[in-house]
Amino acid sequence: MRMILKDGREILMSLYGLKLLKYYIPSVSIEHQTSIVEGFDGPIFNGTRFSGRIITAKFMYKAFDYHDFKLFVAEINALFARKEYFYIIFGAEPGKRWKVRLAESYSPNELLRKVGELEIKFICENIFAESVPTTMDLKEWDVDKWQWGMGIDWDEDLAYSFSSNNFSVKNYGNVLIDPRQHDLEIILRGSFSYVTITNHTTGDSYQYNGSLNGNDTLILRGVQTLKNYVSDFKNTNKRLLTLAAGNNNISISGGTVHSIAFNFRFLYL
Fold it and tell me: Which parts of the sequence belong to the Siphovirus-type tail component RIFT-related domain (predicted)?
């Protein structure tokens, strides 16, 4: 297992004398909002949402002597006890990372004098796994970034930059990408009197009411709209584009596309 800290530093557990024995990733928890209506049998379901997820990792450690064991405990406390989030990546699934925080306190279990086990629980800040690289890294197979089972067919066209007004964007994850919750950046350049971007798969339609010339750049970053890196959300229809799992058929009207790029990570249940 390895950790990636908020500042980008990467830490291997083996450098701390930890050997991963096993890990367990449960399914997402489900919460139903219900109400009771007189005269109806059973509850009325008003909505359903995914909630928390706890990942458990069990390690084995070795110490040379008692003093080394105490030093090990101090190092492990400093490693995991962080107020900010970090990412964990398991060697069996190198293409996926989990955004987590420490879930609860822990203490090493000393099985023998120099050997013991340590169980750490991580609470997921984002309940979905996300691909380690973004779509802008989809250039070649890399065993440290991708794996079989992530939905990618390398015989397909993996383009995420286009120069036409009609194209298809493939979301290889199995979770809808929603810019209100997930990283999604769309960068458009072209000549437009106005811009309407429609995802015919989801039914979403975003409109920018301003004009663009060949030197302008329109950026949709999360819930923001930036023209030439200056906020211009007021000139939109206040709607957002989401990307469904699978193919998303996109069309753009109001002018001519010179280039458009989609940058995001795939999400997995």
Answer: 30-124
Residues 6+ apart with CB under 8 A from 30: 48, 49, 50, 51
Q: What is the pTM of this model?
A: 0.86
Q: C-alpha distances in angstroms, 67 versus 71, 72, 113, 251, 264?
A: 6, 9, 11, 66, 47
Q: Which domain holds residue 242?
A: 135-268
Name which of 169, 175, 174, 173 is nearest 157 in CA terms. 169
One-letter amino acid at 212 equals: L
Sorting pLDDT into bands at 50, 70 and 90, what band is 156?
Answer: low
What is the count of structural domains for the chain?
2
Which residues are CB-neighbours of 215 under 8 A, at least 6 positions away?
Answer: none
Do 174 and 256 fall into the same domain?
yes
Which tens digits make up the pLDDT trace of 15-69? 888 899 999 999 887 877 878 887 777 778 777 777 779 999 999 888 777 777 7
Distance (Å, whole) CA 118 – CA 18: 9
- 107 and 36 within one domain: yes
Question: Residue 110's pLDDT is what?
Answer: 67
Q: End-to-end CA distance of the chain, in Å?
A: 20
